[in-house]
Each structure stands twice: as structure tokens, then as C-alpha cells.
Design brief:
2 domains, about 25% strand, five-stranded antiparallel sheet, six-stranded antiparallel sheet, about 40% helix, alpha+beta, Immunoglobulin-like, single chain
């Protein structure tokens, strides 16, 4: 994103300021002394000419005007210089603020894009789950450190979903989240599920040196509500596929789609 610098002063503005200062000097020199002699007039005209050509410094003024005028002019220049310094500092502050604002807008743009993507993904997920109004989502969590606990879903057509077989070709259902260290969470989901009974099982795959028995909680979310199964304390561990699995509950899905959990 391009950033436009703030230019408080331009060359034209400085020309105007210089001209104004020249006019002030002329007023100090000429106006209070009218009427003047020819010699005084020529001297004052010389001052105006020198000021107009910007070849005159403060000390040179002493050769042409009274000390009071020189001091007044010095105060005037000092005042203008102070104002310029203040305006320059304000300009720098405003430029920094503008840079920070541009950076914030740039970052917010990315955050907005991310938020839009999250909303789009969630919308797709909702549409996916809704389908014809039939879906089920099973979550399994445990509370022990390190321990690897697995969720197994046995489908009515004979396939068993778990960490090695998270989904099957041309079949609904998928183990979408798998954790190998606790405390952990695993998720299985299915939309438009075929009728039948689905068994939910859990097991300790590996204790990883932790002898504490994990407290496992299983929840089922479906279009008719939420089912929270009583916590299960697992005591046996086995890396063998057929051993140590504990049946937590079942999901029954008839043709009507009215899911029941037991």
C-alpha cells in the first residue's frame, strides 16, 4: 500500500514567508520615518533592495537601521524560527501517525481476509453437516499427560474408523482429528449417514511411561440434540488393534434420520 508523505511547507510558501518578512522590515524602516530626507530615503531604499535580494543578514542591518529595529527584527525572526520548528515537529509527528495508521490498515486488511475465510469455511462446514438434516459428530477427550488414547467408530457396513483408517473410499464419515499425546481430543463426523447402528469404542494405545489411568469423555452431537456419555476410566493399554477397546455407546440411525444414542 503506497504511503503519501505530508508536505507542510512548499517552495511557494517559503517565498511568501520571505516576502512577508521583507515587507515587515520595510514597514519598520520606512513608515515610522516619513517624511524623510533624500539621503534617508536612499538609505532606506537600499535596505529594501538588500532584503529583497536576500543578501542581507541580521548583523548587516545595524549599518542601516537603529538598534531597536535590529532587535525587533531578531525577535521576529526567532519567533518565526520557533514556529517553523514547532510546525516541523508536528509534521513529523503527523507523518509517524500516518505511517502507523497505514500499517494498521494493512494488517487489518489481512485479518479481515482471514476472518472472511474462516466464515466461508464454517459456512461450508455447516452446509456439509446439514445436508438433508442428518449428521452426527462424536468427540472423545482425555485428561492424562502424554498418554495416547484412540477413538474407534464401527460402522454398520463393517468398516472401522480409527487413526490408521480415518476414512474409506466412496463412504461417508471421517476421523477428522487425531491426537497422540494427552490431554487430547479426537473427532469423528458423518453427514447423511446410512441407516444402521454405529458403535463407539475407546482404548489406550500407548501410556508412554505414564501409569495414570485416563478419564475419557465422549459426546455425540446430532440434529436432535447432544448426548454426553458417562466418563470412562481406561485401565488397559495395547497397541494391538483388537485388544483393550471399551464400548462407550451406540448411535442408531433409522431411515427417517431421527438419530438415537444409547
Amino acid at each position: 500500500m503506497a504511503k503519501n508523505s505530508i508536505q507542510v511547507f512548499s517552495i511557494s510558501f517559503l517565498d511568501l514567508l520571505s516576502g512577508a518578512l521583507g515587507a515587515v522590515i520595510i514597514l519598520y524602516v520606512i513608515v515610522p520615518k516619513m517624511p524623510v530626507s533624500e539621503e534617508e530615503f536612499e538609505r532606506q531604499a537600499k535596505v529594501a533592495e538588500l532584503v529583497d535580494q536576500f543578501d542581507l543578514n541580521i548583523d548587516q542591518l545595524a549599518d542601516y537601521v537603529s538598534p531597536d529595529v535590529v532587535e525587533e527584527f531578531k525577535r521576529l525572526l526567532e519567533s518565526v524560527e520557533n514556529e517553523l520548528n514547532l510546525l516541523s515537529e508536528e509534521n513529523n509527528r503527523l507523518q509517524r501517525s500516518l505511517d502507523e495508521a497505514n500499517q494498521n490498515v494493512y494488517e487489518l486488511g489481512f485479518q479481515l481476509d482471514d476472518a472472511r475465510q474462516v466464515i466461508a469455511n464454517q459456512s461450508q462446514q455447516i452446509e456439509k453437516f446439514e445436508g438433508e438434516g442428518k449428521f452426527a459428530l462424536v468427540t472423545m477427550s482425555w485428561d492424562t499427560d502424554d498418554t495416547d488414547v484412540d477413538l474407534h467408530i464401527l460402522a454398520p457396513w463393517g468398516d472401522e474408523f480409527y487413526y490408521e483408517k480415518k476414512k474409506f473410499p466412496n463412504r461417508p464419515g471421517e476421523l477428522t482429528k487425531d491426537n497422540t499425546e494427552g490431554p487430547g481430543l479426537e473427532i469423528w463426523e458423518i453427514y447423511n449417514p446410512p441407516p444402521g447402528t454405529y458403535e463407539i469404542k475407546v482404548k489406550i494405545y500407548d501410556r508412554k511411561g505414564n501409569n495414570q489411568n485416563p478419564n475419557v469423555k465422549v459426546n455425540v452431537f446430532h440434529r436432535n440434540g447432544i448426548k454426553n456419555f458417562p466418563p470412562v476410566i481406561l485401565t488397559s493399554a495395547s497397541g494391538d488393534f483388537n485388544q483393550a477397546k471399551v464400548l462407550v455407546g451406540k448411535i442408531t440411525i433409522p431411515e427417517s434420520g431421527e438419530i438415537t444414542v444409547q
